[in-house]
Write a structure and sequence with these properties.
Shape: globular
Helix content: 40-55%
Strand content: 5-15%
Distance between the termini: 45 Å
Length: 432
């Protein structure tokens, strides 16, 4: 296992669904872009230089990922886009294409087809225990960000910052407003369904916001041991590894020295996903060192950060999943970590912060605009361009809902989601 220091390496994973080019019906054909080996055996993963492709649980989802830990974001959106175009070229032969956004608007998840090749016994086990014929299993696509750490001290600092940032992620990344051919009531329906897809064994996902544990031993005792004990009666063959079973919004991968953040909906193009990933990293660095707040004592600041209430963070996540950037955050102890506390507008770091404080109604969108204003110079120019457009437009979910309304026709869905597919093909943002 490579042990990289905190902030030294990262990895990105992006999931896309495969659909018919005309009808947008999902097609279980990830086998096509993955191809076969020289003996004619189906491949489940391939690599093109620094980008890897692999299957997922279901056969209509294809994952693109950094084949090796990266140290720089420069040019990464273009690299992903190049491999997306290569996969789309192969899919053209069967009149198929990749479709972005985190949930298909009219897919019936009961029509899912599990990947029948490598890891089949593991996927069958998941299906037997949880019934993967639901949106939370078969109709959700996300962008995962893996961040390195080395040892308990770095793990604790990174985990504490991630816990606080997680509830804000739907407010920048929501892209799944529709399920079952209508507005779901949540701009980030993927997270809302994700919260419940393993209710049969609650310890696996917990409250999605991870518990406040900051060492390997504490994490193992509080989370892993509970998960292993609870799954044991359902998995007598021990097929399900606890590292993978853990379904919190950020999971500790002590086996590879990383924390994987899983709450970001996939966007309409890879450069948008990379822009959000860059913003996540910059925000986490700023939270970790207190750059966003007016704290005078780092010791006291870190103690407060690590003590953030899990129930309150989980409640905020539910609210941002529902209303995304429009969510009103009336929790001064939380917004204080971002320099936006209502009582301390005199100490606010920017005009954005002072304006939000003066209004007495701080939205999650305000928080992201303030974060961006502080960390902008730590982000590549390409991602700055994308982020400024995204922050002005609002989340992809809001843009889709604005253009489609709450009960669109099938034809309207096909029209707008084909525009998303075109955005993916050309690596540009959706405007409607």
């Amino acid at each position: 296992m490579n042990c990289y220091k905190i902030w030294e390496r990262f990895g990105v994973e992006m999931e896309y669904m495969i659909v018919d080019r005309d009808t947008l019906q999902v097609l279980p054909r990830a086998d096509v872009p993955l191809g076969k080996d020289h003996e004619g055996n189906q491949l489940s993963d391939i690599e093109y230089d620094d980008i890897g492709l692999s299957n997922e649980l279901v056969s209509h989802v294809l994952e693109f990922k950094c084949a090796h830990p990266k140290s720089k974001f420069d040019g990464l959106g273009k690299r992903f886009h190049h491999e997306i175009r290569r996969a789309n070229k192969k899919l053209e032969k069967i009149n198929a294409m990749l479709l972005p956004s985190a949930a298909h608007p009219f897919m019936d998840p009961a029509d899912k087809v599990l990947w029948p090749y490598e890891c089949k016994e593991i996927y069958d086990c998941y299906d037997r225990i949880f019934n993967c014929s639901g949106h939370g299993w078969s109709n959700l696509q996300s962008t995962h960000l893996n961040l390195s750490f080395d040892g308990d001290d770095e793990f604790g600092d990174l985990h504490a910052a991630i816990r606080v940032l997680l509830p804000l992620l739907p407010a920048i990344a929501a892209s799944s407003p529709y399920l079952d051919e209508k507005f779901s009531g949540f701009l980030d329906a993927r997270i809302e369904t994700y919260r419940h897809n393993q209710d049969k064994i609650p310890s696996i996902a917990g409250k999605v916001i991870p518990e406040p544990v900051y060492t390997y031993n504490d994490y193992n005792k509080v989370i892993f041991e509970k998960v292993k004990a609870d799954i044991a009666p359902h998995d007598p063959e021990h097929l399900l590894n606890h590292f993978f079973l853990n379904s919190r919004g950020a999971i500790a991968r002590f086996d590879r020295g990383a924390i994987e953040i899983r709450l970001v909906d996939i966007q309409e193009c890879p450069s948008a996903d990379i822009a959000i990933a860059e913003l996540e990293v910059a925000a986490l660095k700023a939270i970790s060192c207190g750059k966003l707040s007016d704290a005078t004592s780092m010791k006291e600041y870190r103690e407060k950060l690590r003590a953030m209430d899990t129930d309150k963070l989980a409640d905020l996540l539910v609210r941002t999943a529902k209303d995304a950037e429009n969510t009103v955050i009336d929790w001064p102890e939380f917004t204080a970590f971002f320099g936006l506390s209502e009582p301390s507008d005199a100490h606010a770091a920017t005009k954005t912060a002072r304006a939000a404080s003066a209004s007495k109604k701080i939205t999650a969108g305000d928080v992201w605009k303030h974060i961006y204003s502080v960390v902008k110079n730590d982000i590549t120019e390409v991602s700055q361009t994308f982020l400024e457009k995204m922050l002005a437009r609002g989340t992809l979910a809001s843009a889709l809902n604005k253009n489609l309304g709450d009960s669109p026709s099938r034809e309207a869905f096909i029209c707008q989601y084909k525009k998303l597919a075109d955005c993916l093909s050309h690596n540009r943002l959706y405007e409607g």
